[in-house]
Amino acid sequence: MNRKDLEPDSSPQAAFGARVRSAREACGWNQEELAEQTGYSSTHISAVETGRKMPTLRFSRSADHAFGTGDTVDTFERQWREIRHGSLLEGFPQYVGHEGRAVEIRLYNIGIVPGLLQTPAYARVLADSAVRRGAITSGQADERVSFLAERQAALVRSRPPMMFVTMDESCIRRPVGGAAVMDAQLARLVEFAELPNTLLQVAPYEIGERRTFDLPVNLLTLPDRSVICYAESQAQGHLDRESTSVMPMLTAYHQLQAEALSQAASVAMISQLRKGTP
User: Fold this and answer.
1) Alpha-carbon Rg of the chain, whole angstroms?
2) Does residue 56 register a pLDDT over 90?
3) Same domain, yes or no, for 171 and 75?
4) 13 pLDDT exceeds 90?
5) I need a surface site. Which of 2, 82, 126, 145 has the fewest CB within 10 A?
6) Would 23 be classed as within a structural domain?
7) 210-230 in b/e burial notation, b at 16+ Cβ within 10 A?
8) Residue 1, pLDDT above cutoff 60
């Protein structure tokens, strides 16, 4: 039997394949037996293990089911998402995995409309700008835009999450993509505020030092009522599950909401901007 030596450090794809082989051998299975467990051919298993074939979301979930890793922190699906979305900040792919099943989502952004509320045109302008700066490749830009569309689609459920969105005033005043793109984006915010499961608030400049956050913050309440927090800077992201640090963030969010404009006043400000009035 020919056995190809693996080099897991050569690429994230190779590391995924090496982990599949290691898990398979730990179970005492050959490739044919794993193929039966996952619904793939042994040829496909071999190609993934040796890094010749890129794993898919379906394959990673099948591997989690076969190896019993679906309820663990370090799932094959998580590793796949890190491969696919390698241009994203650390911790964000893991955060998104929780976002799709959250019962409550709280967002705060500065300067840019939160991704879950962005129109495709607005998102594309931001991605293309990153390409021009040399921060990402054109392929990664396409990936970011499609990934955002997937995140937005995941929130369209029979029982959608309650969404609380507080935006710094800079989010709606900073022009992105020109007048047409910005007008459509502001219109999208008004539509969002009309939904029965949403609350949209603008934190005006006037609150000054009473603004409780200086960086974007995402807070998720999961079905078991636990809360996780994701916060990021320009260079890195951090996912936190520890209640001792997450609960103060939730308190700060509530304090920010108390200082922000009501939804009615926020929508009125957005509508005035659409009309070209200050």
Assistant:
1) 22
2) no
3) no
4) no
5) 2
6) yes
7) ebbbeebbbbbbeeeeebbbb
8) no
- The percent of residues above 70 in pLDDT, for the chain, comes to 91
Q: What's the number of domains the chain is made of?
A: 2
Looking at residue 71, its pLDDT comes to 80
The two three-digit tokens of residue 121, written as one number: 């045109």
Q: Scanning the structure block, which residue is given the tokens 């293309």?
A: 128
The H-or-E segment that residue 165 falls in is strand 162-168
- Contact 13/51 with Cβ under 8 angstroms? yes
Between CA 79 and CA 94 the distance in angstroms is: 9
Residues 60 and 99 in one domain: no
Q: Which domain holds residue 58?
A: 8-84
89-98 residues labelled b (16+ CB within 10 A) or e (exposed): bebbbbbbeb
Q: For residues 246 and 159, is the Cβ–Cβ distance under 8 A?
A: no
N-term to C-term CA, the chain: 74
pTM metric for this prediction = 0.70
Q: Are residues 63 and 104 in the same domain?
A: no
Residues near 202 by beta carbon (within 8 Å), at least 6 away in sequence: 166, 167, 168, 169, 171, 172, 260, 261, 265, 266, 269, 270
